[in-house]
Amino acid sequence: MNTSFLVSLVCVSFFSLLLPSSGQAALPVTRHTVMWSIPEAKSIPVKINQLANRQMKRVYLHVAVEGDRILYRTFVEAAHAAGIEVYFLFGQPRWITNEGTTFRPNVEDPLAWITLYQSETMQHPDGISVDLEPYALPEWTTNQSAVIASYQRILTAFQERATAEGLPLQLFLPFWFLRSRMSPDVLSVPGRWILQAK
After folding, report:
1. What is the pLDDT of residue 180?
2. Which of 26, 38, 50, 158 is the 20 to 30 Å CA partner of 183?
3. Can you give the pTM of this predicted structure?
4. Which whole number is the average pLDDT over 169-193?
């Protein structure tokens, strides 16, 4: 038997093992959704059932720090029982421009809320997400460098808190954000994990 033919046959056979067969299903789609408010306690099982029926694998649940932490704990427990991950979502663009002022919606509130929530329960979220949208502020066009500097400090605070709590941190960013007119400083420490966030 011709040796080159045998080698080709073995290579083709090996390569064919790596390809999906015609009967195999396509890769599953991972579905995520955002919930901007927590349901009332009696509605949580219904909402979780709806999410499970829609095959959601992750929920980004917006946190209102003045809300009842027991509701969040109940939601996380029910979601986990249904095989759904929960990321707590925080975001208030005015944290950026009001940083350090008496009018600031205090960014320390969600940071403290995370620690308090984690200390009160074993029903921990699977991660933290931050959606601040600095580019939506009027100051983005008039004083972008100050907005970016404040944004970076706030993201660093969230990164430190997430790390301390052993939780991954994700950022909601548009695809063009890192191509905007930002100084090289922004792509320093937080910038590296912005680029690596999954």
Report:
1. 60
2. 158
3. 0.75
4. 62
Q: Which residue has the higher pLDDT, 99 or 14?
A: 99
**Among 167, 7, 5, 197, residue whose Cα is nearest residue 87:** 167
Residues 11-39 as b/e (b if ≥16 CB within 10 A, e otherwise) read eeeeeeeeeeeeeeeeeeeeeeeebeebb
Following CA atoms 78, 79, 81, 85 in sequence, which dihedral angle do they give, to the nearest 10 degrees? -150
Question: Do residues 94 and 68 make contact, with C-beta atoms less than 8 angstroms apart?
Answer: no
β 85-90/127-130 pair status: parallel
118-143 pLDDT, tens per residue?
Answer: 999 999 999 999 998 888 888 888 98
Contact indicator for 30, 59 with CB cutoff of 8 Å: no
Residues recorded for the chain: 198
Owner of token pair 């209102």: 64
82 Cβ contact list (under 8 Å, min separation 6): 48, 49, 51, 52
Residues 6+ apart with CB under 8 A from 108: none
Q: What is the mean pLDDT of residues 141-152?
A: 86
**DSSP E strand stretches across 31-70:** 31-35, 56-62
The neighbour count for residue 167, using CB atoms within 10 Å, is 18
